[in-house]
Amino acid sequence: MSLDRTVPGRDVLLFFPCSYSPPFPRIPSVDSLASSSAISLDKLLDAGLYTGEVTEIVGGPGSGKTQVCLCVAANVAHGLQQNVLYIDSNGGLTASRILQLLQARTPDEEEQSSDLALQLSTQAATLAGALQRIQVVRAFDIFQMLDVLQDLRGAVSQQVSSSSGTLKVVVVDSVTAVVAPLLGGQQREGLALMMQLARELKTLARDLSVALVVTNHMTRDRDSGQLKPALGRSWSFVPSTRLLLDTGQGAGASGSWRMACLTKSPRLPTGLQEMVDTRTWGTPVQSPALQGGHM
């Protein structure tokens, strides 16, 4: 199914046709984890993404920010069998991209079965179930973004049960696309809107007990000329965890390697680094078993 048919604002598109019920069930307020689908990144995230918090993925163009988000969505939908809301403000997300990642996570579960038809049917059902759990909405300005988040809060408050699992992760890719046009000069209203969005994201993560992932671009400091996360100091207080993807040193001949650096964390020392290969982000990793309040 092509995402070209998605419409801005409140209309949500599923990657796979099914009967859609917007409300999500409320899930317990615990610090559970959702794997990022990359072992090296999970090391920097202290085992994975935490619910109740905002995690920010920062990087320049082509650094792999969207790839991380898609792998998170695929892993949660397929491995954890829980729902993901993906808010796309770049307009570049395609169904084929997420489908490819999900197919990599759909093994030949009936390898020893002599019934090929049964094997294919099982694989198709597994894939369809995962596709149904990933819901995508496009929001191309901050007002549409705020509408989507408000609608989500209202849907969860209805506490209508869903047979396809609970909402585990909300992805905003990217927050810069809707905020940056409002900033600069004497646009005080833009700063106020950015802080309104910041408050909504933080309270949504806490109140709904979801892992909220946002992507942010890089910009150059006017004085030093060095690259830094966009949106300024006021925004830097929004994410609990910030992960920087760098395409510079160690990128490799193929250009698939990234240096991931932890620049903000409530649990681990900052400055930790891991080399990651974007080509392996689509391969499945074993999700941590549910133990106490962790996943």
UniProtKB/TrEMBL annotation:
One of its GO terms (biological process) is DNA strand invasion. GO terms for molecular function: ATP binding; ATP-dependent DNA damage sensor activity; four-way junction DNA binding; single-stranded DNA binding. Signal peptide: none annotated. InterPro entries: AAA+_ATPase, HRR_RAD51_Paralog, P-loop_NTPase, Rad51_C, Rad51D_C, RecA_ATP-bd. GO terms for cellular component: chromosome, telomeric region; microtubule organizing center; Rad51B-Rad51C-Rad51D-XRCC2 complex; replication fork. Transmembrane segments: none annotated. Pfam families: Rad51. Keywords: ATP-binding, DNA damage, DNA recombination, DNA repair, DNA-binding, Nucleotide-binding, Nucleus. Residues 30-218 form the RecA family profile domain. It is found in: Nucleus. PANTHER family: DNA REPAIR PROTEIN RAD51 HOMOLOG 4. Involved in the homologous recombination repair (HRR) pathway of double-stranded DNA breaks arising during DNA replication or induced by DNA-damaging agents. Bind to single-stranded DNA (ssDNA) and has DNA-dependent ATPase activity. Part of the RAD51 paralog protein complex BCDX2 which acts in the BRCA1-BRCA2-dependent HR pathway. Upon DNA damage, BCDX2 acts downstream of BRCA2 recruitment and upstream of RAD51 recruitment. BCDX2 binds predominantly to the intersection of the four duplex arms of the Holliday junction and to junction of replication forks. Belongs to the RecA family. RAD51 subfamily. Part of the BCDX2 complex consisting of RAD51B, RAD51C, RAD51D and XRCC2; the complex has a ring-like structure arranged into a flat disc around a central channel. In the absence of DNA, the BCDX2 subcomplex XRCC2:RAD51D formed a multimeric ring structure; in the presence of single-stranded DNA it formed a filamentous structure with the ssDNA. Interacts with SWSAP1 and ZSWIM7; involved in homologous recombination repair. Interacts with BLM; required for stimulation of BLM activity by the BCDX2 subcomplex XRCC2:RAD51D. This is DNA repair protein RAD51 homolog 4. It comes from Physeter macrocephalus (Sperm whale). The gene is RAD51D.
